[in-house]
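User: Could you go from structure to sequence for me? I need the amino acid at each position, not a summary. Structure tokens:
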């Protein structure tokens, strides 16, 4: 192997490592937004979705220390992901004081699919004030879970890899290349030449 090729491989490996570590981490499972006097706080219901489980969003809206009620009647929700937009229902406040957004307008549970980037957009009014607020989020890439009652042909699978899995694989490859280079050097020094 020529020195130029070895240097080029090291530069490419270092660049990939630096690029993977420099990825922006702006997407979160917990998001705050201030709209006028109101603070929106959104969290993901990020369980793997299957018949007896759920996925979706929960949010609260506050004006200072006061929780805002009745938003299930004045706000509309649309989640947009790789598969396109999904109109969702804003439920009444649950026992913990949160609004749930976990079913579509036909009553089917929200399914984030293989995970990834989603944006929840809430439009309507809060105590008479017009709002249009969006929350960029990312659902984890859970494996698809099939139930025993569904036929095998209807089961879904996911082969998606998240960024951190790719980073881990890249780091392992860089470490293996570095170790292999060290071993080759030792072998070439130990092997007598004619």
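Assistant: Here is the amino acid at each position, in order:
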């Amino acid at each position: 192997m020529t020195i130029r090729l070895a240097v080029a491989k090291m530069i490419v490996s270092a660049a990939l490592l630096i690029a993977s570590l420099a990825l922006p981490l702006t997407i979160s499972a917990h998001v705050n937004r201030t709209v006028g006097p109101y603070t929106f706080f959104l969290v993901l219901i990020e369980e793997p979705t299957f018949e007896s489980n759920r996925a979706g969003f929960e949010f609260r809206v506050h004006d200072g220390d006061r929780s805002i009620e009745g938003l299930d009647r004045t706000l509309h929700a649309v989640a947009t992901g790789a598969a396109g937009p999904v109109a969702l229902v804003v439920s009444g406040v649950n026992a913990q004081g949160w609004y749930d957004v976990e079913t579509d307008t036909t009553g089917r549970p929200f399914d984030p699919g293989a995970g990834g980037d989603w944006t929840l957009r809430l439009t309507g009014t809060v105590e008479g004030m017009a709002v249009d607020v969006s929350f960029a989020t990312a659902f984890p890439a859970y494996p698809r879970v099939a139930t025993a009652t569904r036929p095998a042909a209807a089961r879904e699978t996911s082969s998606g890899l998240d960024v951190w899995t790719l980073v881990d694989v890249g780091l392992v490859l860089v470490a293996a290349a570095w170790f292999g280079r060290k071993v080759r050097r030792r072998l070439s020094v130990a092997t007598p030449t004619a």
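One structural detail worth keeping in mind: The domain at 30-146 is CATH 2.60.40 (Immunoglobulin-like).
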